């Protein structure tokens, strides 16, 4: 065993945030041939992290004592004897799923066996990762900014650019829902290529922030229950939105179908809401009736991660972090803040 140690948060059970425990000087394992030692400086939280800690949605278990969180960034301190992709001193982001070919899309099974659930994640000062769980981070970003890319950024990138011939461009339109991490990342990517962005929110304060990021139209979905039809009217000749990034699932899909144009794309990236009327939930038949594509997606490939990071660097995209950033010792408060849904974009923990 290596003489190195790491201060680490571990998840001892699934009874909520009381199950999180800070362990000082936890031993760091020796490097395997394809392993990389990373000194971590920041992590960002996802809804998945809440679910795992609380056991609120049945998932295929977790490993007691696992280090939570999948998203993080840091500097490589050492590499295994057969690692060729990285060297000491490289700045990297984590990828939730390891040991997959770079072009393979992660499945639910892959994600449920990934970082922060069955493999030690990022909420620690130092960690050993398989080289396939890392990508080079955009050089101009801070570690905190880069830590937001692992899940939210990559999911947004796949939602927008994952189908050849349907990527957003100047003159096309994108609808994003709310102000969570995936929606804000998708907004930023769409603005960077010159697309018209329509966003929904329930808060006037958040509407102002959405506009400051380049959103062209903001719709309050609480006061405008037919926001999908409103979004459609805001597009040229009322033809509809080219890409809808749907994060709500059952609660938002009916309006997403109202908004999308013929031959447009609904990218289903989340299941944050429930439907009060199950009969109103769209089915595959709605794809035919609306002549559109609806695709479910989880994260993206490692190749897409590399492509996204290149785009971020070339276009000067700066990921948005909530104004309230937490210290390493305040991880439980960060989890509670995410649960409160008072955040804008990504909740981050930093110790850089």
TrEMBL record:
Domain Enoyl reductase (ER): 16-349
InterPro entries: ADH-like_C, ADH-like_N, ER, GroES-like_sf, NAD(P)-bd_dom_sf, Zinc_ADH-like
Molecular function (Gene Ontology), one example: oxidoreductase activity
Residues making up the signal peptide according to the UniProt record: none
Source organism, top-level taxon: Eukaryota
Transmembrane segments: none
Pfam families membership: ADH_N (PF08240), ADH_zinc_N (PF00107)
SMART domains: PKS_ER
Protein's UniProt name: Enoyl reductase (ER) domain-containing protein
Species of the source: Penicillium antarcticum
């Amino acid at each position: 065993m290596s003489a190195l140690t790491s201060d680490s948060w571990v998840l001892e059970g699934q009874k909520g945030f009381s199950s999180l425990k800070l362990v000082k000087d936890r031993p760091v394992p020796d490097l395997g041939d394809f392993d990389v030692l990373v000194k971590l400086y920041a992590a960002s939280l996802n809804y998945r992290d809440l679910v795992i800690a609380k056991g609120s949605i049945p998932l295929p278990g977790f490993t007691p004592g696992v280090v939570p969180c999948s998203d993080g960034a840091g500097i490589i301190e050492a590499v295994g004897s057969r690692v060729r992709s990285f060297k000491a001193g490289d700045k990297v982001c984590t990828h939730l799923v390891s040991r997959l070919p770079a072009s393979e899309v992660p499945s639910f099974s892959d994600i449920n066996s990934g970082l922060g659930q069955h493999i030690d994640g990022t909420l620690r000062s130092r960690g050993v990762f398989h080289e396939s769980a890392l990508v080079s981070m955009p050089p101009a970003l801070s570690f905190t900014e880069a830590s937001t890319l692992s899940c939210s950024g990559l999911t947004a990138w796949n939602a927008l650019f994952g189908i050849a011939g349907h990527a957003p461009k100047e003159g096309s339109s994108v609808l994003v829902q709310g102000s969570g991490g995936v929606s804000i990342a998708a907004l930023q990517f769409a603005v960077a290529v010159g697309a018209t962005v329509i966003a929904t929110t329930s808060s006037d304060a958040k509407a102002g922030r959405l506009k400051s990021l380049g959103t062209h139209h903001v719709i309050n979905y609480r006061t405008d229950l037919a926001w999908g039809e409103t979004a459609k009217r805001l597009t040229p000749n009322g033809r509809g939105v080219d890409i809808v990034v749907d994060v709500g699932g059952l609660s938002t899909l009916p309006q997403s179908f109202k908004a999308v144009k013929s031959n447009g794309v609904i990218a289903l990236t989340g299941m944050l809401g429930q439907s009060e009327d199950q009969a109103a939930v769209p089915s595959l038949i709605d794809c035919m009736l609306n002549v559109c594509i609806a695709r479910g997606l989880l994260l993206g490939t490692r190749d897409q991660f590399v492509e996204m990071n290149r785009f971020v660097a070339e276009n000067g995209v700066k990921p948005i972090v909530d104004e309230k950033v937490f210290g390493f010792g305040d991880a439980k408060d960060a989890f509670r803040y995410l649960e409160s849904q008072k955040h804008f974009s990504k909740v981050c923990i930093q110790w850089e």
